[in-house]
Amino acid sequence: MSIVSTKASTQADKKSNNHPSKIKVSGVILVDKPQGMTSQQVVSKVKYLFKSPNHDSKKAGHTGTLDPMATGLLPICLGEATKFSHYQLDADKSYQATILLGSQTDTGDADGQVTAEAAIPAFDDAMLDKVAQQFLGAQQQIPPMYSALKKDGKKLYEYARAGIEVDRPPRDIVLKAIELKAIDEQQIQLTVTCSKGTYVRVLAEDIAKTMATLGHLTALRRLQVGDFKIDDTIALADLEALTLKQRQTHLLPVDTCIDINAELTLSSEQCERVQLGQRLNVIDQLTDDLRSYITAAIDQHLTTGNKSAAGHQDIEDIKDDNEQQLVHEIPVDIRLINEQGAFIGLGAVSLNGRLQPKKLIQL
């Protein structure tokens, strides 16, 4: 019996030595997406660039699609950072685009086929300022057929390629800032900051129609996503030219996507308990500042009547089968920190002191 056990142990040791556990690559990298690649192709390339015999970079995703024609800021989350990517999916985004007037394409951009043409009226920057003001603020937009949105389990662009047009319900969007400038007699430059779900291609077409003509995008560049800016990106070719160790210096922390400032420090014992999924009573750890933060988030939640409060933290509006949850029981997302000051994940805390672990990292 002892001989068999020794053999098994020796074989296990050899296997462990031959195939040591890999280091999981976790963090956020801001890539300047090149023209001609899909967003998913960029993600695949980044995964490959962070892969090695000792590093696992299989888990990765981006925080908002850019069309193949588009360039610019593409935040990519790796490993544990993917757990928090939705905070940037919901963030405002800024773009700069070029609109070519006088023709419309089936895709709304230069990758499509021209389907109609129209005369271009004379315009100047003063006129463009008036046009821009008409688009500022809350409005509804009908998504384009050439998009990845799904209807009946099928992507819209699949219908479009088959020559089928389907009804698309309008979606609520908000244009926070917009500027139009003349480039020449046929082209205008559009700079816009908008809410999630905004299609700049559709906006360009609508702007052209307001000018009594047609138009489509010939260039699109994303400048900002939430607090991430284009100046902080690295080009894909430049990233590829680096060594693996140099690439790792461009990785931002796993919690970079989270725009929640409030945090709660947990003891070693508490950290162990939340890692096991256990709820905690942290009533004695709620400072006046934390109570004010929770109260403000709840007030906004109750005012807006939805699940997105200030800072995009996810307010869980859990209800009893028969009665609405009491205010002091409404949980608010908060950062969880260990005694060494390291981020360990997100929890949901309420004014009654109950802390529920939500998304914890495993590094």
From TrEMBL:
Its protein name is: tRNA pseudouridine synthase B
PANTHER family for the chain: PSEUDOURIDYLATE SYNTHASE TRUB1 (PTHR13767:SF2), TRNA-PSEUDOURIDINE SYNTHASE (PTHR13767)
GO terms of molecular function = tRNA pseudouridine(55) synthase activity
Q: Boundaries of each tRNA pseudouridylate synthase B C-terminal domain copy? A: 201-257
Organism of derivation: Psychrobacter glacincola
Q: What top-level branch of life does the organism fall under?
A: Bacteria
Which CDD domains does its entry note?
A: PseudoU_synth_EcTruB
- The answer to whether UniProt assigns keyword rRNA-binding to this entry is no
